[in-house]
Design a protein that fits this description.
Length: about 190
């Protein structure tokens, strides 16, 4: 019962902490978000311990990914990279292909933010291929934006412009609102062309 209670608490924590991480990452203007992000990190770490002890692989995967997202929200890109690499390995172990694509994309964004477009190129391509295989159009859109930023950073402006145009068209078809971080990167890519 104690492990089951721990996992129930971990699931609740994951939901609440994920909301705080998303608010922090996407700038809601709430001044208390930074403190909540720190609280969320502690709670996620505790929940991760419960999930690990109970052998809950899917919950553990979600919590590790949430910790990566939270690290991104705090601009701690090296910590985010470690968490997304861990989540990527775990998503492959349990054959969670959509989560694998998400991890690859987030790794790519973290690599771009840390000035490593060479590493971002591989993860961006792999994420995009996986999203295409899964017919996950939102993931394809994010993948195209990421790949356009990578190509611009690598000096391939013409390729970056074509990818950016394709991403904009697909985003329009989907009526998709980009997350602020990804929107800022797309704008920087556009301005750098």
């Amino acid at each position: 019962h104690r492990e089951a209670h721990g996992c129930d608490a971990a699931r609740g924590c994951a939901r609440s902490s994920r909301c705080d991480a998303v608010r922090s990452r996407h700038g809601t203007g709430d001044e208390g978000v930074g403190a909540r992000a720190d609280d969320a990190e502690r709670a996620l770490e505790e929940a991760l311990g419960h999930a690990t002890a109970a052998g809950e692989a899917s919950l553990r995967l979600s919590l590790v990914g949430n910790l990566g997202d939270l690290a991104m929200s705090k601009a701690d890109y090296e910590a985010a990279i470690r968490r997304f690499e861990e989540a990527l390995e775990e998503s492959r172990a349990v054959n969670q292909r959509s989560y694998e694509a998400w991890c690859l994309s987030n790794l790519g964004y973290a690599y771009v933010y840390t000035g490593r477009p060479d590493l971002a190129l591989g993860t961006a391509r792999e994420s995009l291929q996986l999203c295409l295989q899964l017919d996950y159009r939102i993931g394809v859109t994010y993948g195209l934006y990421l790949l356009s930023a990578v190509q611009r950073a690598l000096g391939s402006s013409e390729v970056a412009a074509r990818l950016l145009g394709a991403a904009d068209a697909l985003r329009g078809d989907l009526d998709l609102l980009l997350d602020p971080g990804e929107a800022a990167l797309a704008d920087a890519t556009r301005q750098g062309l």
